[in-house]
Amino acid sequence: MSETIFLLALAIAAAAALYSSVGHGGASGYIALMALAGLGPEEVRPAALVLNIVVAGLGAYRYLRAGRFDWNVFWPFAVTAIPAAFLAGRIDVPEAVYRPLLAAALAAAALRYLLWPQIDAIKPSAAPSKFIALPAGIALGGLAGLTGIGGGVYLSPLLVFAGWSDPQRATGIAACFIVVNSVAGLAGRASSMALLPTYLPWLVLAACIGAVIGTTWSLKGLDKTGVLRVLGVVLGLAAAALAT
């Protein structure tokens, strides 16, 4: 393993630990790291989805076992997100379009983490409105397919802010949502599997280690405010680099 790949694996392990601690797969972080490492969009999108599936899958398993899930909140978003992610995953996005699109997605995620890191005080009060959940699922699924970002970074604050879930269950709902979105997006780009970097297994191993650490932190009641602000700074820097 070269020094560059080793450093990238370490960075992905750290990102996986931070993201999984809040129920996210971490695709926005992996994409930022791989893009800054010089990987092209044809490698970044499928690789990010694979890492997303691994990290969010592990998180979903652990959060489901801990009772952090609500099917009635999950399905209205997932039912439209899955086909949207699959169809969007089949679209070949030119790099001239992909870079600003990705920069905008990362910037939005950065603002979420920087400006609204603490959501624990908000309590659930209602079931999700289908008039919001169904189109939101389409939008987040499409974003997952186009960019490789699973959408959990946007879904979890929406669930809590709208009063549809408490922060604990939102972590499990977001993790499951990321898994189905990422699987659908990757299925839409099945041909891109041949373009995955040969050293991806090392990145997957690093992501698994990070996910175990992050989910353990979360289940032990880690204060996530500082973690989210760190993620916001990292994503903001990546968005600025991609936009230039």
From TrEMBL:
Belongs to the 4-toluene sulfonate uptake permease (TSUP) (TC 2.A.102) family. InterPro entries: TM_pro_TauE-like, TSUP/Inactive_protease-like. The chain crosses the membrane at residues 44-61, 73-91, 97-115, 136-164, 170-187, 199-219, 225-243. One of its GO terms (cellular component) is plasma membrane. It comes from Candidatus Viadribacter manganicus. It is found in: Cell membrane; Membrane. The keyword Transmembrane helix applies. It is a multi-pass membrane protein. This is Probable membrane transporter protein. Keywords: Cell membrane, Membrane, Transmembrane, Transmembrane helix.
